[in-house]
């Protein structure tokens, strides 16, 4: 084993296999092309990276800094990375961030970079204070604000930034990355295991890698069953079996399948409803039936959120679905 790999051995796989350069970022080719132009010109505006979790926003920001500064990124005065969900008050903006932004950059770099992760968790007063700092010290410091929801960033900040919207990763890209990691870690993931990892990740590559690492601690051979158990989710065919049995009018049998599911996987009532909802639209049933199922699931999900008894509500849910066999 190489020395560099040994030094990373105890780190989470998400960090261990994080792409280090912009060319290694997957499924964001348009964004990467524009970011590489910024690094080539050694000039950039303030940026907002917005999009779902696990799509490469933070990785792209760090890769961009690495390509822009090279070895100089190790110098504390070159760039600063903060998590706004921890440091989100106005005092932090007025002191720590302002002090970093107003200090002149080292002579051999054009500007410093401040990466502010989870910026949509900042309070409104903190965002107002940040707006003024961005405007006043642009010559010294450029900021990259990373968020899941750009609409939670106040309009004055949005108008001062170029917004990059990251899309969820497609299944092939996630599978390719998981294949690479499993080979590096000498783990045998069979085809159904890869498909299950892709399904439970839902476009979030970070989640997929974390699940792969968790599965790897259980077995060196990973299949669909291991993945679903680690992820706390149910194989789709078992959920469909409950729905179809209830739609056929077999209440007692559908309740038995439901109880077996709860016993085997230990899911809460709301998780079961989420799993049922996920399978509704793939059923080979009429649109009217799917509409009624959606209404029923929404109703019982609300009841559970208000503290109703899970066992009673889940059995009542199945009884309601059984009654749909007479729905015209």
Structure description:
The chain has 16 helices and 7 strands. The chain has helices at about 5, 15, 30-40, 55-70, 90-100, 125-135, 155-160, 170-185, 190-200, 205-220, 225-230, 235-245, 250-265, 270-280, 285-305, 310-320; strands at about 45-50, 80-85, 110-115, 140-145, 160-165, 190, 220. Helix 3 runs parallel beside helix 4 (about 55-70). Strand 3, helix 6 (about 125-135) and strand 4 form a beta-alpha-beta unit. It has about 325 residues and is of the alpha/beta class. It folds into 3 domains: about 5-165, P-loop containing nucleotide triphosphate hydrolases (Rossmann fold); about 170-230, Helicase, Ruva Protein, domain 3, CATH 1.10.8.60; about 235-325, Zinc Finger, Delta Prime, domain 3 (Up-down Bundle), CATH 1.20.272.10.
Give a short overview.
The protein has 328 residues and is α/β, with parallel strands linked by helices.
- The tally of beta strands, per DSSP, is 7
Count of domains: 3
The CATH architecture name of the largest domain reads 3-Layer(aba) Sandwich
Label the structural class: alpha/beta
The CATH homologous superfamily of the largest domain:
P-loop containing nucleotide triphosphate hydrolases
| Secondary-structure element string | HHHEHEHEHEHEHEHHEHHHHHH
Q: Number of helix segments?
A: 16
Estimated radius of gyration? 24 Å
Strand content: 5-15%
Name of the level-1 CATH class of the largest domain: Alpha Beta
Shape: elongated
Strand order of the largest sheet: 2-3-4-1-5
* Sheet having the most strands: 5 strands, parallel
CATH topology-level name of the largest domain: Rossmann fold
- Regions with pLDDT < 50 over 5+ consecutive residues? 1-7
Average residue-wise pLDDT:
86
Compute the separation of the termini in Å: 65 Å
